[in-house]
Design goal:
Radius of gyration: 33 Å
Strand order of the largest sheet: 5-6-7-8-9-10-11-12-13-15-16-17
Strand content: 25-35%
Number of helices: 13
Order of helices and strands: HHHHEEEEHHHHHHHEEEEEHEEEEEEEHE
CATH superfamily of the domain at 255-493: monomeric porin ompg
CATH architecture of the domain at 255-493: Beta Barrel
Distance between the termini: 70 Å
Largest sheet: 12 strands, antiparallel, barrel
Shape: elongated
Length: 495
C-alpha cells in the first residue's frame, strides 16, 4: 500500500503541478490542450453574441420586408411552409441547406431570383395543387399503404411511423423525406423507389406524406381524405389470380418474375395414397416462368415459357392500361396482344387479343372479366415421344373465351381467389367439354405474392389456359371435380 501512495499523489493537482514544473516538455504538453479549448471558447461566445443580436434584429425587423430584403441581399431565400430548409444562391448556383440533417445539396433547377422566392420548387409550395395531391395519394395507396396504413398512421408488425403525428413530422425534414423515398432505408423493409417512381411521383408522394400532418386547408380537402378515397380501390396482389390475368398496372421500369407449378398427373382429392403423395406434390410438375417489365406506368411487355411436357410454348406480349379506378374511372381496363409459339417459338403459332377488365366491389374485393380471342389455337396435349422430340403439327381453330374471376380479402394480406374459362367458340373442336376453372388462397408480403390453388387445367400461357386435364392426359372425365389437382404461383417484384 505504501508503494501505491506516490502514484496517487502524482495525480493530485499539487503532484501534477510539481511534475510540470520539473519538466518543461510536460508543461507545454499540458498547456497546449488548455490553450486550444480557450481558443475555441472565445469564437463560440462571440458567435452566441452575434446570434442573439441577429435574433433581436429579426424580432424588430420591419415586417414589410426588412428581413426579406436583408436575406435577398445575402442570397438567402426562405421556403414557404418549411422551418428546416433554406435556399442559398452563390455564383449562379443554388444550394439547398437542410438545417435538421445539416446537409447542403446543389439544387439542379435554375437559380431563383429573390422576387420569385414565393414560387420556389418545394414540397409545400410546388406540390400542393389538387392534381398533385391526387397523384401523391394514388402513389401512396398503390405503393406505401400496405406498410404505412391507408391513412399513414403506420404501426403493425413493421412498426412504421405515424405520419399524422406532429412529433414525427417535426423530426422529419423535407430533404430527409425525399432522400428516404429515393434511397430507402437499408436494414429495414423500406425499399428504394428511385427508378421505380418518376421524380414527379416521388415529389408528389413526399408532399402528400408531409401533408398528412397538416391541418385541413380551407379550399382543399385534407390529404388524408384523398388517400382514404384511393384506399377504397382494391389493388391485386399478383399479376394473376391463378391463371387469369388481373391486368394490374406495373411500376414504371419495374421488373416482375412469375413462376408457376402445376401437378396435373395426380388428382388432389381422389385416388389412393393422396396423403402419402402430399395431394400430388410428390408427382411430376409442369413448371413455367415469365418476366414482365413496366416500360411506363401504363405500357408493359412480357415473356413467358412453359416446359417440354406441354409442347414448349413461348409467349411474347405487350399490354397497355388505359383506365384506372384510382384516377376516378368506373373500372380498370387494359388491352393485351400476345403471340404464342410452340417448340420454343418455332411452330404452331397462336395470336391472342385480351381485354382485362376489373372493378372494385368493396375495398376488400374485386371482380374480373377477361374476354379473349385467339387465332389458330391448338388442342392442349401432353407432348408425345421423348423429352427432346418436336411437338406434333396440330390443326388450329379460332376461339373466343369469356373468362371471369374474383378476389376477396379475408385478411389484410390474404385473399381467396377463383376463376373460370368458358370457351364459347370452337370449344368442342379442341376437346373442351367442360370449362377450365380454379380456386385457391393468395398471400401477399411486400413485393411478393404466393398462391396455392386447385385447378383442372395445366396450361398457363394464353393459348393453353382454357384447355383442361381431360385432353392433356387423354382421359375424358379428368376435367371433373374429382380430377382437380394442386398447383401454386410465385410472384416477385425484382426491381
Amino acid at each position: 500500500m505504501a508503494n501505491q501512495r506516490p502514484g496517487i499523489a502524482l495525480w493530485s493537482p499539487f503532484g501534477k503541478a510539481r511534475g510540470i514544473a520539473q519538466n518543461p516538455r510536460v508543461a507545454v504538453a499540458a498547456l497546449l490542450p488548455m490553450l486550444c479549448l480557450l481558443a475555441l471558447a472565445l469564437p463560440t461566445q462571440h458567435l452566441q453574441a452575434v446570434t442573439n443580436a441577429a435574433a433581436a434584429s429579426t424580432a424588430t425587423a420591419d415586417p414589410a420586408g426588412g428581413t426579406v430584403s436583408l436575406a435577398a441581399s445575402l442570397g438567402v431565400h426562405f421556403i414557404p411552409g418549411s422551418s428546416s430548409t433554406v435556399l442559398i444562391a452563390r455564383d449562379g448556383k443554388t444550394y439547398l441547406v437542410d438545417l435538421d440533417s445539416r446537409t447542403i445539396q446543389e439544387h439542379e433547377k435554375d437559380s431563383p431570383s429573390p422576387s420569385s422566392a414565393g414560387t420556389l420548387p418545394h414540397l409545400a409550395a410546388a406540390h400542393s395543387s389538387a392534381q398533385d395531391v391526387s397523384l401523391g395519394a394514388k402513389v401512396f395507396a398503390d405503393n406505401c399503404a400496405g406498410c404505412h396504413g391507408a391513412g399513414g398512421k403506420g404501426g403493425g408488425a413493421l412498426k412504421t411511423p405515424d405520419f399524422t403525428n406532429p412529433g414525427v413530422q417535426a423530426a422529419l425534414s423535407d430533404a430527409v423525406l425525399v432522400k428516404t423515398i429515393h434511397q430507402g432505408k437499408p436494414g429495414t423493409a423500406m425499399p428504394a423507389w428511385s427508378g421505380k417512381l418518376s421524380e414527379d411521383e416521388i415529389n408528389a408522394v413526399a408532399a402528400f406524406v408531409r401533408g398528412l400532418g397538416q391541418a385541413k386547408r380551407p379550399e382543399q380537402r385534407a390529404p388524408g381524405a384523398e388517400v382514404k378515397q384511393a384506399a377504397k380501390v382494391y389493388t391485386p396482389a399478383d399479376d394473376y389470380l391463378f391463371s387469369l390475368p388481373t391486368g394490374r398496372k406495373l411500376d414504371r421500369h419495374g421488373l416482375y418474375l412469375n413462376f408457376t407449378h402445376r401437378f396435373p398427373y395426380t388428382p388432389a382429392f381422389s385416388g389412393s395414397g393422396g396423403g402419402d403423395t402430399l395431394f400430388g406434390l410428390d408427382d411430376y410438375a409442369v413448371p413455367s416462368f415469365g418476366l414482365r417489365f413496366g416500360v411506363t406506368d401504363k405500357l408493359s411487355v412480357s415473356a413467358y415459357r412453359s416446359p417440354s411436357l406441354i409442347d414448349r410454348p413461348i409467349e411474347l406480349g405487350v399490354a397497355y392500361n388505359f383506365l384506372d379506378e384510382h384516377e376516378g374511372n368506373p373500372l380498370n381496363a387494359a388491352a393485351k396482344v400476345s403471340l404464342d409459339g410452340q417448340n420454343d417459338f418455332s411452330k404452331n403459332f397462336t395470336t391472342n387479343f385480351e381485354m382485362m377488365l376489373s372493378r372494385t366491389v368493396t375495398r376488400r374485393a374485386q371482380l374480373y372479366l377477361v374476354p379473349t380471342a385467339s387465332l389458330q389455337q391448338r388442342e392442349l396435349i401432353s407432348k408425345p415421344g421423348s423429352l427432346a422430340s418436336v411437338p406434333p403439327n396440330l390443326p388450329g381453330f379460332n376461339t373466343f373465351v369469356l373468362a371471369a374471376g374474383g378476389a376477396l380479402d379475408i385478411r389484410p394480406t390474404v385473399a381467396l381467389v377463383t376463376e373460370v374459362f368458358p370457351t364459347l367458340v370452337n370449344g368442342p373442336e379442341l376437346g373442351i367439354h367442360r370449362p377450365a376453372y380454379a380456386f385457391g388462397i393468395q398471400k401477399r408480403v411486400l413485393h411478393h405474392a404466393f398462391t396455392l390453388g386447385f385447378s383442372n387445367s395445366p396450361g398457363t400461357v394464353v393459348s393453353q389456359r382454357a384447355g383442361t386435364r381431360a385432353t392433356f392426359i387423354g382421359q375424358p372425365s379428368s376435367d371433373t371435380p374429382s380430377g382437380l389437382f394442386i398447383g401454386f404461383d410465385l410472384m416477385r417484384q425484382i426491381y
